[in-house]
User: Fold this.
Amino acid sequence: MNPKRKKLLLIVVFIVVGMGTATGLALKAFKENLLYFFSPTQVANGEAPVGTQFRIGGLVKKGSVKHDPNSLRVSFVLTDTAHDVKVNYNGILPDLFREGQGIVANGRLGRNGQFVASEVLAKHDANYMPPEVADALKKAGVKHDYGRYRMK
Amino acid sequence: MFVELGHFALILALFVAIVMAVLPTVGAARGNLRWMAVARPAGRMLFALVALSFAALTWAFATNDFSLVYVANNSNSDLPLQYRITAVWGAHEGSMLLWMMVFSAWTLAVTIFSKQLPEAFVARVLGVMGMISTGFLLFILLTSNPFIRQFPVPANGADLNPLLQDPGMISHPPMLYMGYVGFSVAFGFAIAALLGGRLDVVWARWSRPWTIAAWSFLTIGITLGSYWSYYELGWGGWWFWDPVENASFMPWLVGTALIHSLSATEKRGVFKNWTVLLSICAFALSLLGTFLVRSGVLTSVHAFANDPARGVFILIFLGVVIGGSLMLYAWRAPGLAPSNRYDLVSRETFLLINSVLLTVAMTAVLLGTVYPLVVEALGMDKLSVGPPYFNAVFIPLMVPVALAVGIGALCRWRSDDWRRLWRQLRFAFIGSIVLGVALVAMLAHSDYFMTALGVSLAIWIVSGTVVAVRERLRHRGGLWRGLKSLPSGFLGMSLAHIGFAVTIVGVTITSQFSVEQHKRMGPGESTTFAGYTFHMDRLHDITGPNYTGTEAVVSVTDKDGDAVTTLRTQKRKYNVRDTTTTEAGIHAGVFRDLYASLGAPLGNGDWSIRLYYRPFVRWIWFGALFMMLGGIMAARDKRYRVRARETAAMEEGQTGQAARP
Assistant:
């Protein structure tokens, strides 16, 4: 083998090994960190896994937000108007969280059918509806008034 | 009237862009000097027209002309003047116009700083830029026109998104666009070289300063975005692996690979094809970033558009640009001059390792960013990829990059010797491990390994750089005189590498040693952590020009009870949009930030509040600042001013080539 070939081969080996390792790492991490989205209806139908992390989205039901008087604990009901899921959270809610607003929560479903959120996300604009939530509502047969949905 | 003039100027700019795209390109192919000569005046005209149009829109904002739909949707007469002006790029239409404005500014720069370049080459570069301008101007005029009037005229506007009413917003988008769009020059150079059939060392030398300048702007643009989210979003985070951040980070990664690969192409005439591919890739990713951010497929503070026509337009545009340039590459690249030889242990190898790893890292980020979109578009699942994925893939890839940086700057071109390198670097190598481990041991912590690794790598880069600088200085007299005599390209590189090390230290220590508390607190209550006591002094109401709110005053004392600072954090409610935002109270320091951000009222006079202790967080941005300054220094290197003799030789070749059918 002449030196040029040898060098080329080494470079190719390096690239293949590097790419292979990276791909392996990436796919492993990828599998472990995929977060699926489920709507309250899917949760009610038992489609969502118990004990595995996933995302849930819906509207915060009016009058359902309850703060614990001594801590940051809060509970609220998420709805796609067909079904409800109770969400428990210990932390600070985002600025745009309010009753009637569409939000997405990240966490696990307990055996009691209540969702324990590790993170609650409301998007940056008050008029904004997360697309997953809009879709879940549509599937549940709600005609939501998007009035100012297309805000800009 | 001025607004109509601006609108008209934009339409005229489209025609100028078409002329600029067609005449010089055809002229260069046919060797018609008169057609080629159109390129420069057309480029300047384009700039003048787009600038006029931009000025008209700014004028409309400054004078509260709510008869424009765009102004009415994004401004308000109560908005302070400086934010009325930045509101020009506060939403989709205006930010596209800003994109175009920046693009035409780069075009102008090419027309001015290209005197030494051959006519045919300049004609081709400007021709490519004319094609891109045509696409973007069509996009603005057809789908995102900011000059559309409405009737009846509303009494007042809907206000600017309150999150964007912030000084960071004034500079972040223009800087980011300077970077994004700057890669179009590197792209234009690469396409022109492919069209001309001459990819050589001279081409790489022309391309380098432009590419490095664009990279510097992109660096500072991303840094400003990171800093803005840190103090404005109120969660004290500096990077979220949010798709929008990734959209700007991917061109940066490829751009970094590109400036390194270009140096090897210029100095040694190697990796030509790879460099061209990276030039195409960097600009394609800039366009992809624009597409991801602006089409509304991503949902965040940046996603303005919900109009599918826009997404389709950008997608087609993207397809034409990427598909067209890759086809040209496939057609022309294999016939290019053969590469020079180099040994396994040589600077070329380390530059190659570096640029391959950065490209792999970019691919991993791309996978995590685009995969959920593809899956959803195919109507399968709805899913998202969390930050742990990006950390798990990205960080291991950066370890060999950091190792290579320490050696690469010292390693000789073409051929070097492991034993020589080891002799030079053994103290740096052992020293950085010992020092890194020892430093971290003093601050014992749970994730010991990661911290020691990060700190060791940073020390390794710095010491490797110092050894390389010393090696260069050996025969140059005193330290100061020697430093002044070194080429600014080398000094800029060294500074940027040290900046990389500083950023690594910041990221590592902030990630591992930050302490935070989310508390329920009322006036008079306090909490202690990380050696500081945070005491909530009082809460009071505030009134601003276009908002009302509550301010918390939190005094901080250290272990000895001495006062450190008083943090003021606000919760603001903006009247027009009925939107709430948080203003964090930050006490900045070189070694740590103290950070308070007010949550929400919980009843009984209590509020929720986030309190953070963030050590070394500023190092992340300082490091990036060094990288940018290093880039600017390197771009100013005298060696890039092309010598007349080379140009003359090139000209002969170019026109000779072009004259043939």
User: Anything to note?
Assistant: Chain B has 20 helices and ten strands. The two ends of chain B are 50 Å apart (CA to CA). Chain B touches chain A through 59 residues (CB under 8 Å).
